[in-house]
Amino acid sequence: MVAPDHVKALADTLLSLEERLGIVPSKNRFEGAATVRIYNLLARDRVFESVPVHPAVLPVVEGVLDPGCLISSLSSISILPGEDGQPIHADDQLIPIPRPHPPLVCNTMWALTDFTEENGATRIVPGSHQLPDAPPYGDSAIETVPAEMKAGSVLVWNGSLWHGGGANRTGERRVGIAMNYCAGFIRQQENQQLGIPIPTVRRFDKRLRELVGYGTYHSLIGHIDKQSPEQAVLGEGSDFRSVWDRADG
Predict the structure, then answer these.
(1) Over the stretch 212-238, which tens digit does the pLDDT of each residue have?
(2) Domain ranges of the chain
(3) How big, in percent rounded to 5, are the helix, strand and coil portions of the chain?
(4) Architecture of domain 4-190
(5) Beta strands in 80-224 (DSSP E)
(6) What's the predicted TM-score (pTM) here?
């Protein structure tokens, strides 16, 4: 999906950010004792602005959710040599509604290096998004399969799918970008409106602005005094009409 030069630019920028910002592993079991994660990437560098709107990936996500979807989070996950497997989990398991349910989250993993079973490829439980429960936290007996893929590939999954990062038994790091989306009526994992500086948002194209939350869902959810956030906060855009105004023709 992703051209080699784009993969290289993303990987090089991540390594530069890691060194410049002094990013180190979080040391908790979920995020990993030997996993480097960089959050809020849209606020870090312009190179990441092309990720959420990739023309071959975003339509797939919109098909799972709908065009009103939002960016839930955009972060990197670099699994270092010696890391253990991440606890199996579902990305929507903190949303307190019965399972199974219609898709509320659709997430993607961009492989910036080859993903192999040996270096920590994402491990998945096929069909688990249809189960009535989320996985028990820390259950090491859950059977999984590795989502092996070449650098430049993109893995897409329903947020209810049980999965987790694999163990890295090689001498090289496994690098990926977690580009995660949620339905337009669900709160985002990373607070995009407060986390991304206004001057940065001003340079985003309209679709990216909508994805970070400067639009509205169904011409209602997320408005500010009957204006879109793009109008109310950025002073731009003039085509917003509320769902109730539209209902009257």
Answers:
(1) 999 999 999 999 999 999 999 999 987
(2) 4-190
(3) 25, 20, 55
(4) Sandwich (2.60)
(5) 105-111, 123-124, 145-146, 154-158, 163-164, 174-182
(6) 0.95
